[in-house]
Design brief:
- Strands 3-2-1-4-6-5 form a six-stranded mixed β-sheet, sandwiched between helices. Strands 7-8-9 form a three-stranded antiparallel β-sheet, covered by helices on one side.
- Helix 5 crosses helix 6, helix 7 packs across helix 8 and helix 8 crosses helix 9.
- The protein has two domains: 184 residues, HUPs (Rossmann fold); 70 residues, Chorismate Mutase Domain, subunit A.
- The protein has nine helices and nine strands.
- It has 325 residues and is of the alpha/beta class.
- It is elongated, with a radius of gyration of 23 Å.
- Helix 3 links the parallel strand 2 and strand 3.
- GO terms for molecular function: ATP binding; tRNA(Ile)-lysidine synthase activity.
- Belongs to the tRNA(Ile)-lysidine synthase family.
- It catalyses: cytidine(34) in tRNA(Ile2) + L-lysine + ATP = lysidine(34) in tRNA(Ile2) + AMP + diphosphate + H(+).
- InterPro entries: Rossmann-like_a/b/a_fold, TilS/TtcA_N, tRNA_Ile_lys_synt, tRNA_Ile_lys_synt_N.
- Its EC number is 6.3.4.19.
Length: 325
């Protein structure tokens, strides 16, 4: 695809999906890698049509977890200083009471987004923009599938979603491959940092990227596109099904749910009900126990321990979510 066509298609998508426009102030999440630097340059080169050109600031978080963290920060400082049309360039260095040795990626991500939200509020930005692309989307879908995530989580990352109160998160590059990103910009990048930890296959996502995805692509060159298409179709099916599912959720809440229907159907109903209550980390085995409890004609009460302070409780025909006493 010609770069001009690529950029025109992306502009049309931004308008159709309402990702941002001239009235928005976006904070670009910059890491020092090629992807986020391409995103920053594309948003600040002045090539976007006026109606979709937001005010642009940028934020970088130094996690202090890699040997080259200071060199990366120095590169980001140079980039911010040389970037035209940049309202603000903010940098925050994280501190750790103890450097994490397990769940490192998850803990770093949590602290990074907290810092980015703080930066966005500091400069008055209403949207944080990230450089997630099609490859990241495929990794996310396959990773969640492998971990046994709920059906609703297999649709992947949303182009735009609420992140925290007055701050949204936008991902405008989800339909582009990593190779496409260079064609977004007029002036090519001359420097960036390669995150050497991306080659460390002790991290599950890296194994997905380095081993699983190449294996799938060797079977079918369009494997990545097919995964994304599957997720898009699944999201469409969920939209169609939401009305019917919510009818059953209301029946559950009213103590009128038919517990004789197929267990896989009941599982989706209970998962949807729990999601409404912001309870996400419930195992399928726990939901199955709850179904069996509600189906048991010999009892009218019972408890299913969900861990922590939560439990599922049967009271006659009602399934309740309650706190442990």
């Amino acid at each position: 695809m010609q770069p001009k066509v690529l950029r025109a298609n992306l502009t049309r998508q931004i308008r159709e999906q309402g990702l941002f426009d001239q009235h928005d102030h976006v904070l670009v999440a910059v890491s020092g890698g090629q992807d986020s630097l391409h995103l920053l340059r594309w948003l600040t080169e002045g090539t976007l049509p006026a109606d979709v050109q937001p005010t642009v600031s940028a934020g970088y978080v130094n996690h202090q977890l890699r040997d080259d963290a200071d060199a990366e920060e120095a590169l980001v400082r140079r980039t911010f200083a040389a970037t035209p049309n940049l309202a603000h360039g903010l940098i925050e260095t994280l501190t750790w009471e103890a450097v994490p040795t397990v769940a490192v990626e998850e803990k770093a991500r949590e602290k990074r987004y907290e810092a980015l939200i703080k930066m966005a509020r500091e400069v008055g930005a209403n949207i944080i923009v990230t450089a997630h692309h099609q490859g990241d989307q495929v990794e996310t879908i396959l990773y969640k599938l492998t971990r046994g995530s709920r059906l609703t989580q297999l649709v992947g990352m949303a182009p735009r979603q609420q992140l925290r109160g007055d701050i949204d998160l936008a991902r405008p590059l989800l339909d582009l491959t990593k190779a496409d990103l260079a064609d977004l910009v007029i002036q090519p990048l001359t420097e960036w940092v390669e995150d050497y930890t991306n080659a460390d296959e002790t991290f599950a996502r890296n194994r997905m990227r380095q081993t699983v995805l190449p294996a799938l692509t060797s079977i079918n060159e369009q494997a990545a596109e097919h995964v994304v298409t599957f997720a898009t179709q699944l999201a469409a099916l969920q939209k169609l099904a939401n009305g019917a599912i919510n009818v059953h959720v209301k029946a559950l809440e009213a103590g009128r749910l038919d517990w004789t229907v197929d267990e896989s159907v009941l599982t989706i109903i209970i998962q949807t009900w729990l999601t409404k209550k912001h309870v996400l980390n419930v195992k399928d085995s726990q939901i199955s126990q709850a179904i069996q409890l509600m189906r048991n004609p010999s009892v009218s009460t019972g408890l299913i321990d969900l861990g922590g302070q939560l439990q599922l409780e049967r009271f006659d025909n009602y399934l309740l979510l309650s706190q442990k006493h």
